[in-house]
Amino acid sequence: MVSKYEVEFLLQQQWYDPRLRYYNQSSYDFLNAIHHHNDVWLPDTYFIMHGDFKDPLIPVHFALRIFRNGTVNYLMRRHLILSCQGALHIFPFDDPQCSFAMESSKAPSFHSFTI
């Protein structure tokens, strides 16, 4: 039996870009760069074998922080609708397997998740 499950999660990515280092006497440890997200390089992240994406309920579904040393922290909320395999004859006590994969064109490793 194939059933659909909705999954919402936060994906956090962090990297270092020396071009974004800055020095100031501000009491803040990072810049909130949410309004500059089109001007900052962001990694291309792809979701494979996932099903469908659901539109976010809130208009701003990410956070972008740039730290003084050039570290960039990117947090994004994703909402997936997954197609899962289960055993109909013991539903709702089955243990459905919902898999999706995630990769980036800039990262050498491949990450796969089972929910």
Automatic annotation (TrEMBL):
What's a single GO MF annotation on this record? extracellular ligand-gated monoatomic ion channel activity
Under Gene3D superfamilies, the record lists:
Neurotransmitter-gated ion-channel ligand-binding domain (2.70.170.10)
Q: Which residues form the Neurotransmitter-gated ion-channel ligand-binding domain?
A: 4-105
- Pfam families under this entry? Neur_chan_LBD
Any one GO CC term of this protein is: membrane
Name the domain of life this protein comes from: Eukaryota
Q: Which residues form a coiled coil?
A: none
Its recorded name reads Neurotransmitter-gated ion-channel ligand-binding domain-containing protein
State the organism named in the record.
Laodelphax striatellus (Small brown planthopper)
